[in-house]
Amino acid sequence: MEELLKELSKRAEEEILKAKSLQEIESLRVKYLGKKGELTQILRGMGSLSPEERPVIGQLANDVREKIENMILERREKIAKEEKERKIKEEYIDITMPGKPYKYGHKHPITLVMDEIKRIFLGLGFSIAEGPEVELAYYNFEALNTPEDHPARDLQDTFYITSDILLRTQTSPVQVRTMEKTKPPIRVISPGRVYRSDDIDATHSPVFHQMEGLVVDEGITMGDLKGVLNVFAKKFFGESTRTKFRPHFFPFTEPSAEMDVSCFACGGKGCRVCGYTGWIEILGAGMVHPNVLRMSGIDPEKYTGFAFGLGIDRIAMLKYGIEDLRLLFENDMRFIEQF
């Protein structure tokens, strides 16, 4: 048995030194030291030894086991170190090479236009007011002097959630909520998304963007409205821009008007952009109706105000020469990166 143990030790040493991978080392450990390994098989024959031989063979077996364990440990550490060095060499990074550039996001044309309009009105002393997109019918219609039989309240024009809750069709409800919470003087703009039941085509979308403006104070006149909007038009479209107002009707303003600006593409001479009229309609406006002031808790005998609403999407299309509204909602980076 002594000869068997010595032969086992010699054979294990040779195989361990030849091992090239951690998997081979683990296989040799199981082969020689496992529960069914060769060393265990030899030790099962100790029962046939004499009492004098057992301590000697037992000590020799322990020495062989310890030797094999130490050799496996040393070889495992050496192979692990060699594999690490190999990986480092194979995965070498040349730190002098330029790094991979990160692709940054890009502002959407609607966001660019909205930010520019905000800057203009903030510079005129306005502040920003916000309101819910899921709105009560009261704020979207009744508080804005829109009676129940008005066509704007029809199911084919409005996304109703219940008979009293809907997706707002305009940002005008924000002006009512602002007047309820704030005492005059009031000077706010309220940009945001609005929803109407429209078919999707080159000029219509069920989701689009508006910006409402509201001023309420003592002595506010139509002249103040025209002055503010004239400054806005010149700041946004250029100092040579001219404006004109045409009579119109809105339930929540009286008198009401639509404002045109001289075509920024042709300077008012007439071109395809302006339909060869020299003018482009950009917003609706008017003096806040006394009924709206009254329902919002403001005395129309003491205070007057004006309001205006403009379509952000339409202005973005005009500013950047976009002919199809659907391009603004497809999120194609090839399109967005042009602006």
UniProtKB/TrEMBL annotation:
Its cofactor is Mg(2+). It is an enzyme of class 6 (ligase). Mg(2+) binds at residue 254. It catalyses: tRNA(Phe) + L-phenylalanine + ATP = L-phenylalanyl-tRNA(Phe) + AMP + diphosphate + H(+). The keyword Chloroplast does not apply. Its EC number is 6.1.1.20. Residues 113-330 form the Aminoacyl-transfer RNA synthetases class-II family profile domain. InterPro entries: aa-tRNA-synth_II (IPR006195), aa-tRNA-synth_II/BPL/LPL (IPR045864), Phe-tRNA-synth_IIc_asu (IPR004529), Phe-tRNA_ligase_II_N (IPR004188), Phe_tRNA_ligase_alpha1_bac (IPR022911), Phenylalanyl-tRNA_Synthase (IPR002319), tRNA-bd_arm (IPR010978). One of its GO terms (molecular function) is magnesium ion binding. One of its GO terms (biological process) is phenylalanyl-tRNA aminoacylation. GO terms for cellular component: cytoplasm. Binds 2 magnesium ions per tetramer. PROSITE patterns: AA_TRNA_LIGASE_II. It holds the Pfam family Phe_tRNA-synt_N. SUPFAM superfamilies: Class II aaRS and biotin synthetases, tRNA-binding arm. It is found in: Cytoplasm. Its main location: cytoplasm. Keywords: Aminoacyl-tRNA synthetase, ATP-binding, Cytoplasm, Ligase, Magnesium, Metal-binding, Nucleotide-binding, Protein biosynthesis. Belongs to the class-II aminoacyl-tRNA synthetase family. Phe-tRNA synthetase alpha subunit type 1 subfamily. Tetramer of two alpha and two beta subunits. This is Phenylalanine--tRNA ligase alpha subunit. It comes from Caldanaerobacter subterraneus. The lineage of its organism: Bacteria, Bacillati, Bacillota, Clostridia, Thermoanaerobacterales.
